[in-house]
Design goal:
Structural class: alpha/beta
Oligomer: single chain
Strand content: 5-15%
Bound molecules: iron/sulfur cluster, magnesium ion
CATH class: Alpha Beta
Distance between the termini: 49 Å
Number of helices: 13
Shape: globular
Strand order of the largest sheet: 2-1-3-4-8-7-10-9
Radius of gyration: 22 Å
Amino acid sequence: MTTSEKNTKQVSTKDFENIDVYWCAGCGHSGALMAILRWCVRKEVDPSQLVNSNGIGCSSKVGDAHRCNNHHWLHGRSLPIATAIKAVNPKLVVLDAGGDGDGAAIGAEHTLHTFRRNPDITYFFLNNQVYGLTKGQIAPTGHKHLVTPTTPCGSREEPVDMCRLAITEGATFVARAYSYDQNQLSLIVDRAFEHKGFSFVEILSPCPTYHREPDYDAIKDWYKDVIIDVGEAERAMQDALIPAEIVAPNYNPSNKEQALRAIEIAKNITWQTISGMARTTAMNGKLVAGILYCEENKPTFEENIGVSLEHPIVELDLSHNSADNQAVFEQLTREFL
Ligand code: SF4
Ligand code: MG
Protein backbone atom coordinates (compact mmCIF):
# COMPACT_ATOMS: atom_id res chain seq x y z
CA MET A 1 0.00 0.00 0.00
CA THR A 2 1.41 3.42 -0.92
CA THR A 3 1.77 6.23 1.62
CA SER A 4 -0.87 8.35 -0.11
CA GLU A 5 -3.34 5.43 -0.06
CA LYS A 6 -2.69 4.96 3.66
CA ASN A 7 -3.31 8.64 4.33
CA THR A 8 -6.67 8.71 2.58
CA LYS A 9 -8.33 5.55 3.86
CA GLN A 10 -8.58 3.34 6.88
CA VAL A 11 -6.68 0.08 6.38
CA SER A 12 -8.81 -3.04 6.85
CA THR A 13 -8.45 -6.79 6.37
CA LYS A 14 -10.04 -6.30 2.90
CA ASP A 15 -6.80 -4.60 1.84
CA PHE A 16 -4.95 -7.86 2.46
CA GLU A 17 -7.43 -10.23 0.84
CA ASN A 18 -6.67 -11.92 -2.44
CA ILE A 19 -8.92 -14.31 -4.39
CA ASP A 20 -11.94 -15.84 -2.69
CA VAL A 21 -11.29 -19.34 -1.40
CA TYR A 22 -13.97 -21.90 -0.60
CA TRP A 23 -13.99 -23.46 2.80
CA CYS A 24 -17.00 -25.23 4.34
CA ALA A 25 -19.14 -23.21 6.75
CA GLY A 26 -17.48 -23.19 10.17
CA CYS A 27 -14.07 -24.36 8.92
CA GLY A 28 -11.41 -23.33 11.42
CA HIS A 29 -9.01 -22.29 8.65
CA SER A 30 -10.95 -19.08 8.05
CA GLY A 31 -10.24 -18.11 11.68
CA ALA A 32 -6.53 -18.71 11.12
CA LEU A 33 -6.60 -16.58 7.96
CA MET A 34 -8.47 -13.79 9.76
CA ALA A 35 -5.87 -13.70 12.56
CA ILE A 36 -3.07 -13.33 9.99
CA LEU A 37 -4.95 -10.62 8.08
CA ARG A 38 -5.65 -8.72 11.31
CA TRP A 39 -1.94 -8.81 12.13
CA CYS A 40 -1.24 -7.33 8.66
CA VAL A 41 -3.69 -4.51 9.46
CA ARG A 42 -2.24 -3.85 12.94
CA LYS A 43 1.30 -3.68 11.59
CA GLU A 44 0.36 -2.00 8.29
CA VAL A 45 2.42 -4.59 6.48
CA ASP A 46 3.47 -3.90 2.91
CA PRO A 47 2.19 -6.96 0.96
CA SER A 48 5.18 -6.73 -1.40
CA GLN A 49 7.47 -7.41 1.60
CA LEU A 50 5.51 -10.43 2.81
CA VAL A 51 5.93 -14.01 1.58
CA ASN A 52 3.42 -16.75 2.33
CA SER A 53 4.74 -20.21 1.48
CA ASN A 54 2.14 -22.98 1.33
CA GLY A 55 1.80 -26.69 0.75
CA ILE A 56 -1.20 -28.81 -0.30
CA GLY A 57 -4.62 -29.14 1.31
CA CYS A 58 -7.55 -27.08 2.57
CA SER A 59 -5.20 -25.30 5.01
CA SER A 60 -2.86 -24.15 2.27
CA LYS A 61 -5.62 -22.06 0.72
CA VAL A 62 -4.73 -19.53 3.44
CA GLY A 63 -2.02 -18.30 1.07
CA ASP A 64 -4.39 -17.96 -1.89
CA ALA A 65 -6.71 -15.80 0.18
CA HIS A 66 -3.84 -13.57 1.33
CA ARG A 67 -2.61 -10.66 -0.79
CA CYS A 68 1.18 -11.03 -0.69
CA ASN A 69 3.87 -13.06 -2.48
CA ASN A 70 2.20 -16.45 -2.34
CA HIS A 71 3.30 -19.81 -3.69
CA HIS A 72 2.55 -23.52 -3.29
CA TRP A 73 4.90 -26.49 -3.09
CA LEU A 74 4.51 -30.22 -2.62
CA HIS A 75 3.81 -31.43 0.93
CA GLY A 76 6.26 -30.00 3.45
CA ARG A 77 8.58 -28.56 0.78
CA SER A 78 7.26 -25.07 1.47
CA LEU A 79 9.42 -24.93 4.62
CA PRO A 80 12.87 -25.33 3.00
CA ILE A 81 11.77 -22.92 0.26
CA ALA A 82 10.67 -20.39 2.90
CA THR A 83 14.00 -20.90 4.69
CA ALA A 84 15.90 -20.18 1.45
CA ILE A 85 13.82 -17.09 0.65
CA LYS A 86 14.60 -15.61 4.08
CA ALA A 87 18.30 -16.38 3.66
CA VAL A 88 18.45 -14.74 0.23
CA ASN A 89 16.41 -11.70 1.29
CA PRO A 90 16.35 -11.33 5.09
CA LYS A 91 14.40 -8.06 4.83
CA LEU A 92 11.24 -9.96 3.87
CA VAL A 93 8.71 -11.22 6.41
CA VAL A 94 8.29 -14.92 5.64
CA LEU A 95 5.50 -17.15 6.87
CA ASP A 96 4.30 -20.62 6.02
CA ALA A 97 0.76 -21.95 6.42
CA GLY A 98 0.21 -25.67 6.11
CA GLY A 99 -1.74 -28.58 7.47
CA ASP A 100 -1.22 -31.84 9.31
CA GLY A 101 -0.65 -33.71 6.02
CA ASP A 102 2.03 -31.22 5.05
CA GLY A 103 3.79 -30.81 8.34
CA ALA A 104 3.28 -34.10 10.20
CA ALA A 105 2.95 -36.71 7.44
CA ILE A 106 4.28 -36.57 3.87
CA GLY A 107 6.40 -33.49 4.54
CA ALA A 108 7.30 -34.19 8.17
CA GLU A 109 11.03 -34.52 7.51
CA HIS A 110 11.13 -30.91 6.36
CA THR A 111 9.39 -29.75 9.53
CA LEU A 112 11.89 -31.63 11.67
CA HIS A 113 14.90 -30.05 9.95
CA THR A 114 13.36 -26.59 10.10
CA PHE A 115 13.05 -27.00 13.89
CA ARG A 116 16.76 -27.61 14.25
CA ARG A 117 17.84 -24.92 11.74
CA ASN A 118 15.94 -22.10 13.45
CA PRO A 119 15.35 -19.81 10.42
CA ASP A 120 13.67 -16.50 11.24
CA ILE A 121 10.30 -17.49 9.77
CA THR A 122 6.82 -18.19 11.21
CA TYR A 123 5.01 -21.45 10.57
CA PHE A 124 1.26 -21.80 11.13
CA PHE A 125 0.55 -25.52 11.43
CA LEU A 126 -3.22 -25.92 10.99
CA ASN A 127 -4.19 -29.13 12.74
CA ASN A 128 -7.69 -30.57 12.27
CA GLN A 129 -6.67 -34.23 12.81
CA VAL A 130 -8.01 -35.28 9.37
CA TYR A 131 -7.28 -34.82 5.66
CA GLY A 132 -10.19 -32.52 4.80
CA LEU A 133 -9.38 -32.08 1.11
CA THR A 134 -9.49 -35.83 0.43
CA LYS A 135 -12.62 -36.58 2.47
CA GLY A 136 -11.52 -37.04 6.04
CA GLN A 137 -8.89 -39.79 6.36
CA ILE A 138 -7.08 -39.72 9.70
CA ALA A 139 -3.93 -37.55 9.96
CA PRO A 140 -0.93 -38.46 12.15
CA THR A 141 -2.24 -35.90 14.64
CA GLY A 142 -5.59 -37.73 14.90
CA HIS A 143 -6.23 -38.89 18.46
CA LYS A 144 -6.43 -42.49 19.59
CA HIS A 145 -9.93 -43.97 18.97
CA LEU A 146 -10.77 -41.38 16.30
CA VAL A 147 -13.17 -42.88 13.77
CA THR A 148 -12.57 -41.88 10.14
CA PRO A 149 -12.97 -43.60 6.75
CA THR A 150 -9.47 -45.11 7.18
CA THR A 151 -9.97 -45.99 10.87
CA PRO A 152 -13.57 -47.33 10.91
CA CYS A 153 -13.04 -49.12 14.24
CA GLY A 154 -11.20 -46.16 15.77
CA SER A 155 -7.48 -45.40 15.58
CA ARG A 156 -5.23 -47.76 17.56
CA GLU A 157 -2.26 -45.37 17.36
CA GLU A 158 -1.02 -42.56 19.56
CA PRO A 159 -1.03 -39.20 17.73
CA VAL A 160 2.13 -37.24 17.07
CA ASP A 161 2.33 -34.10 19.22
CA MET A 162 3.99 -31.52 17.00
CA CYS A 163 4.46 -28.97 19.79
CA ARG A 164 6.37 -31.53 21.84
CA LEU A 165 8.48 -32.41 18.80
CA ALA A 166 9.12 -28.72 18.07
CA ILE A 167 10.33 -28.11 21.64
CA THR A 168 12.60 -31.15 21.79
CA GLU A 169 14.07 -30.61 18.29
CA GLY A 170 15.08 -26.96 18.61
CA ALA A 171 12.25 -24.60 17.63
CA THR A 172 12.69 -21.40 19.64
CA PHE A 173 9.04 -20.27 19.82
CA VAL A 174 6.31 -22.88 20.26
CA ALA A 175 2.64 -22.11 20.84
CA ARG A 176 -0.72 -23.79 20.46
CA ALA A 177 -3.87 -21.79 19.77
CA TYR A 178 -7.49 -22.38 18.81
CA SER A 179 -8.79 -20.77 15.63
CA TYR A 180 -12.19 -19.97 17.19
CA ASP A 181 -10.48 -18.01 19.99
CA GLN A 182 -9.40 -14.90 18.09
CA ASN A 183 -8.21 -13.03 21.19
CA GLN A 184 -5.73 -15.70 22.19
CA LEU A 185 -4.74 -16.37 18.57
CA SER A 186 -4.08 -12.66 17.86
CA LEU A 187 -1.81 -12.42 20.89
CA ILE A 188 0.11 -15.50 19.80
CA VAL A 189 0.36 -14.31 16.17
CA ASP A 190 1.87 -11.00 17.38
CA ARG A 191 4.44 -12.77 19.54
CA ALA A 192 5.27 -15.32 16.85
CA PHE A 193 6.05 -12.65 14.25
CA GLU A 194 8.05 -10.60 16.79
CA HIS A 195 10.20 -13.58 17.73
CA LYS A 196 13.67 -13.81 16.16
CA GLY A 197 14.06 -17.43 15.09
CA PHE A 198 11.70 -20.21 14.06
CA SER A 199 8.17 -19.69 15.40
CA PHE A 200 5.99 -22.80 15.37
CA VAL A 201 2.31 -22.05 15.97
CA GLU A 202 -0.03 -25.03 16.01
CA ILE A 203 -3.57 -23.83 15.39
CA LEU A 204 -6.28 -26.27 16.42
CA SER A 205 -8.56 -25.69 13.44
CA PRO A 206 -11.86 -27.63 13.45
CA CYS A 207 -13.02 -29.49 10.34
CA PRO A 208 -16.79 -29.61 10.96
CA THR A 209 -17.35 -31.55 7.73
CA TYR A 210 -15.23 -34.64 8.42
CA HIS A 211 -14.21 -34.64 12.08
CA ARG A 212 -16.92 -36.32 14.16
CA GLU A 213 -16.92 -37.15 17.85
CA PRO A 214 -19.48 -39.39 19.57
CA ASP A 215 -21.65 -37.46 22.07
CA TYR A 216 -21.01 -34.12 20.39
CA ASP A 217 -23.35 -32.57 17.82
CA ALA A 218 -20.92 -29.75 17.05
CA ILE A 219 -17.18 -30.32 16.86
CA LYS A 220 -16.57 -26.92 18.44
CA ASP A 221 -18.08 -28.26 21.70
CA TRP A 222 -15.60 -31.14 21.68
CA TYR A 223 -12.73 -28.64 21.33
CA LYS A 224 -14.09 -26.70 24.31
CA ASP A 225 -13.69 -29.84 26.41
CA VAL A 226 -10.31 -30.80 24.96
CA ILE A 227 -8.39 -27.53 25.20
CA ILE A 228 -6.80 -26.45 28.46
CA ASP A 229 -4.81 -23.27 28.99
CA VAL A 230 -1.14 -23.83 29.78
CA GLY A 231 -1.55 -21.95 33.09
CA GLU A 232 -4.29 -24.37 34.15
CA ALA A 233 -2.15 -27.36 33.19
CA GLU A 234 0.64 -25.87 35.27
CA ARG A 235 -1.72 -25.51 38.26
CA ALA A 236 -2.80 -29.14 37.84
CA MET A 237 0.88 -30.06 37.76
CA GLN A 238 1.60 -28.16 40.96
CA ASP A 239 -1.50 -29.47 42.70
CA ALA A 240 -0.22 -32.97 42.10
CA LEU A 241 3.10 -32.18 43.78
CA ILE A 242 2.50 -29.36 46.23
CA PRO A 243 -0.89 -27.94 47.36
CA ALA A 244 -1.83 -24.90 45.22
CA GLU A 245 -2.17 -22.62 48.27
CA ILE A 246 1.53 -23.10 49.12
CA VAL A 247 3.04 -22.44 45.68
CA ALA A 248 1.41 -19.84 43.43
CA PRO A 249 1.08 -21.01 39.82
CA ASN A 250 3.72 -19.40 37.68
CA TYR A 251 4.20 -20.82 34.22
CA ASN A 252 7.56 -19.91 32.70
CA PRO A 253 7.74 -20.42 28.91
CA SER A 254 11.54 -20.24 28.90
CA ASN A 255 11.71 -23.49 30.86
CA LYS A 256 11.82 -26.39 28.39
CA GLU A 257 11.23 -29.09 31.00
CA GLN A 258 8.20 -27.25 32.39
CA ALA A 259 6.73 -26.94 28.88
CA LEU A 260 7.12 -30.66 28.21
CA ARG A 261 5.64 -31.52 31.62
CA ALA A 262 2.62 -29.27 30.98
CA ILE A 263 1.96 -31.11 27.69
CA GLU A 264 2.16 -34.48 29.47
CA ILE A 265 0.03 -33.40 32.44
CA ALA A 266 -2.70 -32.16 30.08
CA LYS A 267 -2.73 -35.51 28.29
CA ASN A 268 -3.51 -37.22 31.58
CA ILE A 269 -6.52 -35.06 32.44
CA THR A 270 -9.81 -36.79 31.62
CA TRP A 271 -13.27 -35.26 31.62
CA GLN A 272 -16.93 -36.17 31.42
CA THR A 273 -18.56 -35.61 28.05
CA ILE A 274 -21.49 -33.20 27.87
CA SER A 275 -23.92 -36.09 28.24
CA GLY A 276 -22.18 -37.00 31.49
CA MET A 277 -20.83 -40.27 30.08
CA ALA A 278 -17.09 -40.98 30.20
CA ARG A 279 -16.66 -42.16 26.60
CA THR A 280 -13.61 -43.07 24.57
CA THR A 281 -13.06 -39.46 23.50
CA ALA A 282 -12.59 -38.56 27.15
CA MET A 283 -9.79 -41.09 27.47
CA ASN A 284 -7.36 -39.12 25.33
CA GLY A 285 -6.66 -36.30 27.74
CA LYS A 286 -6.43 -32.63 26.86
CA LEU A 287 -4.38 -30.43 24.58
CA VAL A 288 -2.55 -27.63 26.31
CA ALA A 289 -2.79 -24.22 24.61
CA GLY A 290 -0.94 -20.93 24.98
CA ILE A 291 2.68 -19.88 24.53
CA LEU A 292 4.41 -23.08 25.57
CA TYR A 293 8.06 -22.32 24.94
CA CYS A 294 10.18 -19.32 24.00
CA GLU A 295 13.97 -19.25 23.77
CA GLU A 296 15.63 -15.90 23.04
CA ASN A 297 19.07 -15.28 21.58
CA LYS A 298 19.70 -18.61 19.89
CA PRO A 299 21.46 -17.87 16.56
CA THR A 300 19.18 -18.08 13.54
CA PHE A 301 19.90 -20.08 10.41
CA GLU A 302 20.69 -16.84 8.57
CA GLU A 303 23.19 -15.79 11.25
CA ASN A 304 24.80 -19.23 11.22
CA ILE A 305 25.45 -19.11 7.48
CA GLY A 306 26.65 -15.48 7.55
CA VAL A 307 23.77 -13.73 5.78
CA SER A 308 24.34 -9.98 5.75
CA LEU A 309 21.45 -7.54 6.25
CA GLU A 310 23.51 -4.78 4.62
CA HIS A 311 24.50 -6.87 1.57
CA PRO A 312 21.91 -9.62 1.15
CA ILE A 313 22.30 -12.05 -1.71
CA VAL A 314 19.21 -10.66 -3.44
CA GLU A 315 20.95 -7.29 -3.87
CA LEU A 316 24.17 -8.65 -5.39
CA ASP A 317 24.74 -7.42 -8.91
CA LEU A 318 25.22 -10.70 -10.69
CA SER A 319 25.38 -9.03 -14.08
CA HIS A 320 28.50 -7.10 -13.07
CA ASN A 321 31.74 -8.62 -14.35
CA SER A 322 29.79 -11.26 -16.20
CA ALA A 323 32.98 -12.54 -17.82
CA ASP A 324 34.38 -13.23 -14.32
CA ASN A 325 31.15 -14.94 -13.31
CA GLN A 326 31.36 -17.16 -16.36
CA ALA A 327 34.96 -18.11 -15.48
CA VAL A 328 33.96 -19.00 -11.88
CA PHE A 329 31.00 -21.02 -13.15
CA GLU A 330 33.20 -22.98 -15.55
CA GLN A 331 35.76 -23.62 -12.80
CA LEU A 332 33.03 -24.95 -10.47
CA THR A 333 31.62 -27.14 -13.24
CA ARG A 334 35.07 -28.65 -13.85
CA GLU A 335 35.43 -29.40 -10.11
CA PHE A 336 32.13 -31.27 -10.03
CA LEU A 337 32.85 -33.38 -13.15
FE1 SF4 B 1 -12.38 -27.02 6.22
FE2 SF4 B 1 -12.80 -29.64 6.51
FE3 SF4 B 1 -14.22 -28.25 4.74
FE4 SF4 B 1 -11.62 -28.70 4.30
S1 SF4 B 1 -13.24 -30.25 4.40
S2 SF4 B 1 -12.71 -26.75 4.01
S3 SF4 B 1 -10.79 -28.62 6.39
S4 SF4 B 1 -14.26 -27.98 6.97
MG1 MG C 1 -5.76 -31.78 8.12
